[in-house]
Write a structure and sequence with these properties.
Strand content of chain B: 15-25%
Oligomer: heterodimer
Strand content of chain A: under 5%
Number of strands of chain B: 19
Structural class of chain A: mainly alpha
Radius of gyration of chain A: 19 Å
CATH architecture of the largest domain in chain B: 3-Layer(bba) Sandwich
Helix content of chain B: 10-25%
Mean pLDDT of chain B: 97
Number of strands of chain A: 2
Number of helices of chain B: 11
Number of domains of chain B: 2
Low-confidence stretches of chain A: 6-30
Order of helices and strands of chain B: EHEHEHHHEEHEHEEEEHEEEEHEEEHEEH
Helix content of chain A: 55-70%
Low-confidence stretches of chain B: none
Number of helices of chain A: 8
CATH superfamily of the largest domain in chain B: FAD/NAD(P)-binding domain
Largest sheet of chain B: 7 strands, mixed
């Protein structure tokens, strides 16, 4: 039995409730509102999701996906917003990515080096899993408080509508 | 509370608010009945200025709730967790759609009605519109012309506050405008290209009921963007912040929310409405209110439902329906037929603030008779805007470079959406389904409507003409799409109790007064004899103020 089959057996076999309890315990003190009503990721897949999110939006001079809480938001949408049919290819894709890293490097995606992760993720850019997660991560990042407010010139309500011009010497819009 | 009034207004939206203001300011003790819940200006705008991260599902919305309770409303982009409290719950207030003929009934269920949620675009009709039915024989002739309504347009515009640019176009008369909102550089470029390449076509800034300067004690727009979350500064026209407060200031008005009108009682002797039967939405208690005059402003379909449910021995097919026209000729505007493209250049330009308005290309088809190359009757206008794409655009890859790119403004894109006139067809029809009643025991509305050949041909022309204009402006990646092709999507329902000269073919006369029931006036979208291609609300405002003035004259003369 590989990990993929294990996970299916675990959730299908009624271990889901235990996973819910564990999940809530792990997130105690975090944004409770983001806790899904149902659990579709185990701890390993949760690590894979976090690592994928950070690969897509890494920490730079602005916060990365993990700092901005994107993995929790992505998990909420995957768990409570998507239908099982929509979700399954994403779960399968994450498991396949993780399995491929185990086979190649002897460790899962989340434990791989940044370069190894970039190569592994780059190889599945056409997959349904990647397209869905990229969209979720980008949306989750730019609609998060840290992601949105760290954007240059963030001002949701400047009080006017007007055109601004970019000054290449100062790098500013005015 | 007193049960007797001089006037009862049913509905508190665009039309009902104006009826309440005009009737109460002219001294009539007026009762406003609204089926939706009370909304307190400012206090109940829970979603205003809220960032997405204050909502559990952020931009995705609460999908499960939308599917169970808001399957129709949630199809519309303006419905979301920020303003759900204003919209109709489709599970609680269902209607029936004819097999194979979907209809989107987009409704508010709150004091102020759709005036909270509307698109705010305001365009006067011209005689091109009022004479359209007579000219091509589709539908009956309007009993009024532009000269009849022109002073009333000016009257309501001055009060409501409409920003816009005068253009001197015969097909789109200028109004009483506050200073126009600005176009951005790309829109100016597209305007110049269209006007140079296509003589007779014009692009102007949208004429919009959003203040650009202080007006009647209301503050100008602060450009936060989504007006439809509610506006604490009352900068867009909404019954809650304009007409209803004016009505209340007279001391003559009583506003009763949670009041579902079941039917109108008529006296067989006098032929007049003698009572308005109300079911309290919260307690289910029944009340009867009486008045000398009744203004029905419950939305085209809502008003039609009430009239149909008011049948009696004298009115076996529904009140004021001796003609059989009631419920027929439902119109909308073709909606979301669009064209878009990428506008190269202008990379050193961007905009700040959210302009709650776009550009408008007034009708240019079939203006002076039928165009040689047009295989459809009447016409359409375009609404649109240019903006720089943001983080939601398609950028390949992932990682640091991806993040840097997607964090910067993307290319300029220009979108334009056609709004086309739909002809009045007898079989685009609303009836009551007596076998299906709602939670108040009122028969549900059954809607059987569809786009027909003229609308489909017009949509093809919208796509072709839109594409050629964007290409002429230098756009790349130009693409066009037909839209949902589902009636109701334009949220401009009109025509189910039309005005006309002849009681044999129409429900209302030239003063919005029922031919058969002299103290009953219908001034919402139901009264429309044809649809034009422009957004209808400013016309409802003008026609309501005009009818209210006439009704008061009749009351004063002792005729009502």
């Amino acid at each position: 039995m590989n990990r993929r089959e294990l996970l299916r057996a675990a959730i299908g076999g009624g271990t889901g409730l235990a996973l819910v309890g564990l999940h809530r315990a792990c997130l105690a003190g975090a944004n409770l509102d983001a806790i899904p009503d149902q659990t579709v990721l185990d701890a390993d897949l949760r690590r894979v999701l976090s690592a994928i999110a950070e690969c897509i939006i890494p920490e730079t001079d602005t916060p990365g996906a993990i700092t901005a809480g994107v993995p929790q938001f992505a998990e909420l949408i995957l768990s409570d917003w998507y239908t099982p049919e929509e979700r399954q290819p994403v779960l399968d894709g994450m498991l396949a990515l993780d399995d491929a890293c185990f086979e190649k490097h002897g460790r899962g995606f989340a434990a791989c080096s940044a370069d190894e992760q970039a190569v592994a993720l780059g190889a599945v850019q056409d997959s349904e899993m990647f397209k869905v997660l990229k969209s979720l991560v980008v949306n989750g990042y730019f609609t998060s408080e840290l992601g949105a407010t760290s954007q240059p010139g963030y001002d949701p309500m400047p009080g006017v509508y007007k055109e601004v011009v970019y000054d290449a010497t100062t790098g500013r819009w005015s | 509370m007193s049960m007797e009034f001089d006037a009862i207004v049913i509905g508190s939206g665009i039309s009902g608010g104006w009826a309440a203001k005009e009737l109460s300011e002219k001294g009539l003790k007026t009762l406003v009945l609204e089926r939706g819940h009370h909304v307190e200006h400012i206090r109940d705008y829970q979603g205003e200025h809220q960032p997405p991260w204050h909502y559990r599902f952020r931009d995705y919305g609460d999908r499960k709730l939308h599917e169970t309770d808001y399957p129709i409303q949630s199809k519309f982009g303006w419905f979301n967790d920020h303003n759900r409290q204003f919209w109709n719950n489709d599970r609680l207030n269902p209607y029936v759609q004819a097999e194979g003929k979907p209809f989107n009934w987009v409704r508010a269920d709150a004091l102020g009605g759709r005036s909270i949620l509307w698109g705010r675009q305001c365009y006067r009709w011209s005689d091109l519109d009022f004479e359209a039915n007579k000219r091509d024989g589709h539908g009956i002739d309007w009993p009024i012309r532009y000269k009849d309504i022109e002073p009333w347009y000016a009257y309501v515009e001055k009060y409501a506050g409409i920003s816009g640019q005068a253009e001197g176009l015969p097909q789109l008369p200028d109004g009483e405008f506050l200073k126009p909102m600005p176009m951005n550089s790309v829109e100016k470029h597209v305007k110049a290209a269209i006007e140079e390449n296509y003589p007779g076509r014009t692009m102007t800034i949208g004429r919009v009921a959003v203040l650009t300067e202080p007006h009647n004690g209301r503050a100008p727009c602060h450009y936060c963007g989504p007006c439809h979350y509610g506006c604490s500064t009352a900068s867009y026209f909404c019954s809650l912040t304009t007409t209803l407060p004016a009505a209340k200031a007279t001391g003559n008005v009583t506003i009763r929310p949670d009041s579902v009108v079941e039917r109108l009682e008529t006296d067989p002797e006098t032929g007049r409405v003698t009572g308005v039967d109300v079911i309290d939405a919260k307690t289910k208690e029944r009340h009867r209110f009486t008045s000398r005059v009744v203004f029905l402003c419950a939305s085209a379909i809502g008003s039609t439902q009430i009239l149909m449910n008011s049948k009696s021995e004298q009115h076996p097919n529904g009140l004021a329906n001796g003609s059989g026209a009631l419920g027929r000729y439902l119109m909308d505007h073709t909606f979301a037929t669009g064209v878009g493209g990428v506008m190269p250049g202008f990379q050193d330009r961007n905009t700040i603030g959210q302009r709650p308005n776009g550009i408008y290309i007034p009708r240019f088809r079939n203006l002076d008779g039928q165009d040689d190359d047009a295989n459809f009757l009447r016409g359409y206008g375009f609404q649109g805007a240019a903006r720089r794409e943001g983080w939601s655009r398609d950028v390949p890859g992932f990682g640091k470079d991806f993040k840097d790119t997607v964090s910067k403004p993307g290319p300029w894109v220009m979108y334009m959406s056609g709004f086309g006139e739909i002809l009045p067809y007898a079989d685009n029809q609303v009836t009551l389904d007596e076998k299906k009643v709602d939670r108040f025991g009122i028969p549900q509305v059954h809607v059987s409507v569809e786009y027909k050949d003229n609308e489909k041909k017009m949509i093809d022309d919208i796509m072709a003409r839109g594409t050629e204009m964007l290409k002429a402006a230098g756009a790349t990646n130009v693409h066009a799409w037909p839209g949902p092709m589902i009636m109701g999507s334009g949220v401009h329902e009109m025509g189910t109790a039309r005005m006309g000269h002849d009681p044999a073919t129409s429900v209302l006369n030239g003063w919005n007064q029922a031919h058969e029931v002299p103290n009953l006036f219908v001034t919402d979208g139901a009264c429309m004899t044809s649809g034009s291609c422009v957004n209808p609300s400013i016309t409802y405002m003008a026609i309501t103020a005009r009818a209210a003035s006439h009704a008061v004259e009749l009351v004063r003369a002792g005729a009502l």
